Amino acid sequence: MTEPPGAPDDLAGARHPGAAGGRHQAHDPLRELGAFIREQRAVARMSLRRLSELAGISNPYLSQIERGLRRPSAEILQQIARGLRISAETLYVRAGFLDPPAAGGDVEAAVLADPRLDAEQKQALLGVYRSFLAAGSRGGGVAGDRRASPASGPCPPVGRCNE
């Protein structure tokens, strides 16, 4: 199990200010990172014990990370990401190791780089993505009110027709 003693992930044993006493922290990146990891674990329907096994870290250490009590190293985040089957970069951004991608990010590059998708799946996803972008550039927007009419064709995949 990986737990670097006294490494940068250890906050000198100190708890975060406001952790006790019910005070609300406006912005606590470690707690937000931990909450995100916990949410991803819940979405994956994975126990804390199972994720700790997959990530190669101890149960208590993972629990402390999820509660925002420890700052994990980039290596530990990579192991957690691998266990959750999510991008390590996502965790790096949330931990503050990387800057967030520019608005809009490179969705197409991410789809093309994902090894879990075959070529047909990648093309299908890119086709849907590009159709949403095209719809948005025509003024309808994905969240826009585009009701079906004989001139506009079938209903978009999101929203209701002929309300």
Keywords:
434 Repressor (Amino-terminal Domain); 2 domains; 7 helices; 47% helix
Question: What would your notes on this structure say?
Answer:
This protein has 2 domains: 1-100, lambda repressor-like DNA-binding domains (434 Repressor (Amino-terminal Domain)); 101-163, no CATH class. The chain has helices at 29-43, 48-55, 59-66, 74-84, 88-95, 107-113, 119-137. The chain has 7 helices and no strands. Helix 2 packs across helix 3, helix 2 packs across helix 4 and helix 4 crosses helix 5. It is an all-alpha fold and 163 residues long. 15% of the residues are buried. The termini are far apart.
What's this, in brief?
Helices cover 47% and strands 0% of the residues.
Topology order in helix (H) and strand (E) letters: HHHHHHH
Terminal residue distance: 57 Å
The CATH architecture of the largest domain: Orthogonal Bundle
Helical proportion, percent range: 40-55%
Which radius of gyration do the C-alpha atoms yield? 21 Å
Number of domains: 2
Strand content: under 5%
Class from helix and strand fractions: mainly alpha
What would the CATH topology of the largest domain be? 434 Repressor (Amino-terminal Domain)
CATH top level label of the largest domain: Mainly Alpha
- What low-confidence regions span 5 or more consecutive residues with pLDDT below 50? 4-10, 12-23, 142-163
For the report, how would you describe the main beta sheet? none
CATH superfamily of the largest domain: lambda repressor-like DNA-binding domains
* Overall average pLDDT: 75
Helix tally equals 7
Shape: globular
Total beta strand runs: 0
